[in-house]
Amino acid sequence: MEDEIRVISSSYITDNGSVAVELFGRNMKGESFTLLYRNFLPYFHVIEPTEEELKRMNSSDEKVSLEPIELWYRGRKAKGVKFTVKSPWKVPELRRMIEDQSRVLAADIPFHFRFYYDLDLGSCVKFSGEEIRDSRFTTDHVINCTKVERTEDFLPPLKVLSFDIENSIKTKQLYVIGFTVTFKGESRDGAITGEPADILNKFISLIRKEDPDILTGYNVDGYDLPFLQELADREGIQMLLGRDTSTPQRVQNQFWRIHGRVVADAWWNVKREIHPKQETLAYVSQELLGESKGDVDRLNIDKEWEKDKERVIKYCIRDSYLALAILMKIDVIEKYENMSTVAMIPLDDVWNSGNSTLIDSLIIREADRRHIAVPMNNFTTQNAERIEGGYVHSIEPGLYDMVAVMDFKSMYPSLMIKYNICFTTISPDGEIVSPTGVRFLSPAVKKGLIPEILERLMNTRDRYKAMMKVERDPEKKRYLDSMQGQVKILMNSFYGVFASSFYRFTDQNIGSSITAFAR
Question: What is the pTM of this model?
């Protein structure tokens, strides 16, 4: 079977002792897919390992192979080894076999990202393989893949399910779960009532049957999902909400990860996108949609439920509808789909990751092509020296007329390109000298990895803007505007990441040189 999908999320499973990368997504017809790719193994690099370290790696039960490599490392070519192992989850333990952790490279890259980088995949993939039957998966199709490759990006119809719960504040008894589902322009809603354990089991069955790509609601991230997880723990129920029959995982107490689905809290997205004066569902739905909530007294829900169950059920369903309508109104789904196109990673990772993850996707691929060492992130760095920021000119407060406005196009990226600022070009022999005294090789001697990526992004943005000028179709024009906007956001994120203290390629000399040139 051959087809193309937009990848919603990626993970991995163990199957009969081997590891399979999972790609979940939909094709243009709206059919859902699970792709299983089994011919890929985790690995990391070690620079100049000692004899003792080589002995440890060779004797490890996890060892698959140990190959010699040569990488550009800290301004010089250095010999090392590529250590390929059996199990992704064992990598953190295995890398501790090396005494000097600065010589351990690329050992903190999540396994599905390593797969993405090595196969140079994008937000949409073309695949070929054999369709199989596997009851673990909720998708329309499950494919044992023999080939996966990048393909032209497209926007398939996605299924979104919004839900809301009503429960007793005093006793924590779950009364009802209301839901609204939308797919291919059609919507339907409903509610689940009964005993709490029955409600939860029916909700799990609903998710598995509907198989949504996106789960939303108003504060489901901070309230509804934690409440349901607590209920599941009390009742001894497994919340098998993932497309691979996995349970939800709370990641670093920041977001929920459900394999194959994106948890896109309408409340969080409203906060990020429009910063409303008030964040209540009642206020936001009135401001954005011109629609009101029901008049059930949430603080006295026990009495309301006892008095009129049907009214509370309708109220709950309406809350799920309003959350869905808000998410659609602020148009964040397509925004993040477009960023996943630019960053070339799955939708879930764009939605729930920081800028460093997006930039990693571009830099690590290029570094691998050039045989440049990829250090690990350093989250233990403390008290990094503060970089002097940009120039701010203070003026006398008041009213002014005849004001001219001049905008420096993508200032920091432009300066990084012009002065070839990069961790690969810092050199005492550099011909380009920053105002802080740091030297960089000229592009004629060595083109920097970062300037090359930024130049490519800038050309891509210019191409989108040029297409916008001649495009007559308002919908296509809006899409092109969104794409150029996402490219701009990613370009402008480079400085912030390189000026941070934790990033794998951070160098204080880079951040200070950029702002010094800008001043």
Answer: 0.92
